[in-house]
Amino acid sequence: MRISNIKLAFKKCKLENRPALLTYTVSGDPNKKKSFEILKSISLHADICEIGVGHNCNTGDGKQIQDSTYRAIKNGIKIKDTFAIVKRFKKTKNAKPCILMGYYNSVVQYGENRFIKKCKQVGVDGLIVVDLPWPENKNFSKKCKKNSINFIQLISPTTSKYRMKRIVKDSHDMIYYISMLSTTGGKLKVSPRKILKNYNRIKKINKSKNLVIGFGITMKTISSLKKADGLVVGSSLCKEVSKSIKNGQNPVTNVSNMVKNLRRKLSWIG
Fold first, then answer.
1. How much of the chain is helix, strand and coil, in % rounded to 5?
2. Which CATH code fits 5-267?
3. Which of 29, 61, 67, 173 is labelled catalytic?
């Protein structure tokens, strides 16, 4: 079986003795053209690009991502546009593996089988469906695997040991650890030491599975969590888009510079 692009990205980072940098931006924010340009620009520095699928009831997201989603929906973003952005992005010279992140309603509305087929067609490498937990996601996860798409499972600080073991067993090439009980963009309320302690408990179950940390990762906190396989930065990037618009600046340049600096922080292992 062919090694997935996601697995290859982690393998490359391990050879470089650093964690993978995963970025999250919302499809269609601040508009379709600019969101594609942001993706293209940040892929020079990011290892994996997560792309948010706009939804009007994004319950897991904080203000920064909700603002981005609101702008995208207001500008008329549709799921077909997101697929078009991914398809175009994957044809670019420095395209990185991309993961669509969203809610199950978007999948149901499009049609589950049709959605997975379209993802494969346009080059989506992975899917995170926030409100489709284990074991309810088992059937959907199997369908993804059959189509060479990584279904990314989520684990939180309150996940029981029983569920944790089974989630890890059923996972594909990447697992997402939610660092704290909060919406996205919340201030890191848990010490990096505590986060890494919980992280290591999951990692011990199967060391070959790539485990990333998300929620509360910023320019200030990223260096303290470098022992992880990967780190996800999303709200900070969405906030930078909002700030750029407010100040009449180019969000493509500003977000790209931020990702460049985040990547630089991960290169200095110490």
1. 45, 15, 40
2. 3.20.20.70
3. 61
